[in-house]
Design a protein that fits this description.
alpha/beta, seven-stranded mixed sheet, 15 helices
Length: 577
């Protein structure tokens, strides 16, 4: 049975898109639309299902085109500002798209459930908004903030408007960057291909909002006055803090306001004042006190009572823009990497070898916090140069052909990072001696060169200032195995190599010889990526109180697989004895 017939059988009516009214979006003329009336305890809703196709791997978009009269203009959970009905998280929900009758039945029940939840009142309504509140803000412009979402209070922030290229055809869009120092601002402008010398910075007012009564009656706000209306009912101290902040930062005709909503996130807007209002407000601007005495507090109250009517006046502002605020702080980004906020910040890490394994590993370590913090540093060491033959597996693009690999890797990472990680480069083969490896928290051997691995093991045991951890990562068994081991003093590189990963009978065809001393073994770049990922995991494991493993292997093809383990000293190992 067709989707059309299934929808009709479920009570939907086919309607031409030109007859659909009440939506803040315009539907294409050729768009198919099906409508249905759903009854709730608060009254009837008319729902439009837009553009359902035969592919049901995604549910069709659903909109509210009519609601009960007493709910018009009110904010309802699960219904966006442009009347889209949120049914389910399409990224995580599951259904069988190969059985259309069940999908249409699911769609019908999800609509009814979403509407029933939307018309709840009191505490239940508040609960429906919880953890999703910022999604109803519906900003028109993106704002990127170099600050942790949970640590805005006490910060001194500024912001700047810029135009950024956001598509391959050169289209540009307005966006804002929020920063605590000009280095962050200039770095963002560099990443977006803009000149920071153009334009001027604005002031930012930060207000903390308690989330116990955040559910609004009308949302999202269309003006500064409506923002004050919301805060007056949701959090009165935040209401007064907003007025104080605006008056305190009243140095220019525009100002950004950020609301740090506990357990929810950040929302914000820019407000621009008319010249008449700005002049009037300056007479009432709140000066920062030398001491917080009772007289000063009384004067603040008097000024607020006299200035609030001016701030709420329709003629006070010339523009009001809501932002979609995204945090680009390292703390916020690291939360997506690990469930616990443990990263490599403030660690001194040396990477020997910037080939395929070292290149991918370096990028992953940067994402795990390496090269950041007051004392954190990442050091790349390699004496080789990037050649065309490297491009089949290397993380570096063709732009860097002829560059030293360590220098190229540093340039690539710094060019594309949100901030400026601390990376040092040693563009030469590092001599294996005690002085060159001491002083680091972690030394990573990504050379895949057995004599280098063995020499590091010797040095670590002969030195009184050995690095706490040496991580060896290499592709083994002619590209059929990824191996990573952590040398914490209990077992060494030589012990790991005693574990056979390939039988003699399973050796692949002999590698292709190009010239004397130059050979290559054909295998996919994915092997190097897996080895690099294991190196990142090993580096992060060193931050735990007890290492979960010191040897890990991922095998393909005919390679002999060894389970993860805490590697013990091999009985006849010449290095460990």
């Amino acid at each position: 049975m067709s989707i059309h017939n299934l929808l009709l059988r479920s009570g939907f009516r086919y309607v031409e898109s030109r007859y659909i009214t009440g939506l803040p979006i315009t539907l294409p003329k050729e768009c198919t639309v099906y409508t249905k009336t759903y009854k709730t305890q608060a009254g009837a809703f008319d729902i439009a299902v837009v553009g359902p196709g035969e592919d049901l791997s995604c549910l069709p978009e659903t909109y509210v085109i009519k609601r009960p009269v007493h709910l018009i203009g009110l904010a309802l959970p699960h219904i966006s500002s442009f009347q889209r009905l949120c049914l389910v998280n399409q990224d995580t929900a599951d259904w069988d798209p190969q059985y259309p009758p069940a999908v249409i039945s699911l769609l019908d029940s999800l609509i009814q459930k979403a509407l029933d939840n939307a018309v709840t009142v009191g505490y239940q309504r508040q609960a429906e908004f919880q953890t999703e509140f910022v999604n109803y803000w519906s900003g028109a412009v993106d704002a990127y903030i170099y600050a942790d979402a949970g640590g805005l209070l006490g910060s001194k922030l500024s912001y700047r408007l810029l135009k950024a290229v956001t598509s391959a055809d050169g289209r540009t869009d307005n966006e804002y960057v929020v920063f605590s120092d000009v280095t962050q601002r200039d770095n963002w402008f560099r990443l977006r291909g803009e000149d920071p010398a153009l334009g001027s910075d604005g002031d930012v007012t930060i207000v903390r909002v308690n989330n116990t009564k955040i559910a609004p009656n009308k949302w999202p706000p269309q003006s500064l006055s409506e923002v004050f209306d919301w805060l007056k009912s949701a959090d009165l101290p935040a209401h007064d803090s907003l007025a104080k902040g605006i008056l305190t930062n009243l140095t220019k005709d525009r100002q950004m306001v950020l609301f740090d909503i506990s357990n929810e996130g950040i929302i914000g807007f820019e407000v621009r004042f008319s010249s008449v209002t700005k002049k009037a407000l300056k007479h009432h601007a709140i000066k920062r006190p030398n001491s917080g005495g009772s007289k000063h507090k009384q004067k603040q109250k008097q000024k607020l009572s006299s200035t609030l009517p001016m701030l709420r006046s329709k003629s006070a502002t010339t523009a009001f823009f809501r932002f979609n605020v995204s945090s680009i702080s390292n703390q916020e980004l690291q939360r997506r990497n690990r469930p616990v906020s443990i990263d490599l910040e403030n660690k001194k890490i040396l990477i020997i070898g910037c080939g395929t394994v070292g290149g991918f590993a370096s990028q992953l370590l940067i994402k795990a916090g390496a090269g950041r913090g007051n004392i954190g540093r990442l050091v790349f060491c390699d004496g080789d140069f990037l050649s065309p033959s490297n491009l089949s597996r290397h993380a570096l693009p063709a732009t860097y052909i002829g560059w030293n690999k360590a220098e190229a890797l540093s340039d690539l990472i710094k060019r594309d990072c949100l901030d400026s990680p601390k990376i040092d480069v040693k563009p030469y083969r590092l001599e294996m001696n005690e002085g060159n490896i001491c002083g680091y928290d972690i030394v990573i051997d990504a050379t895949g060169h057995a004599p280098t691995g063995k020499m590091l093991s010797y040095l670590a045991r002969a030195s009184t200032q050995r690095p706490p951890f040496i991580i060896h990562g290499y592709n083994d068994a002619y590209g059929q195995a990824s191996v990573v081991m952590i040398d914490n003093g209990l077992a060494c590189y030589e012990c790991a190599k005693r574990l056979v990963t390939l039988n003699e009978t399973d050796r692949p065809i002999a590698p292709h010889r190009i010239s004397c001393g130059s050979i290559f073994t054909p295998y996919d770049a994915s092997v190097s990526m897996i080895t690099a990922a294991l190196i990142q995991e090993a580096a992060l494991s060193t931050l735990q109180e007890r290492l979960p493993w010191t040897y890990a292997q991922h095998s393909t093809g005919n390679a002999i697989h060894h389970k993860r383990r805490r590697l013990s000293k091999f009985g006849e190992c010449r290095v460990c004895t």
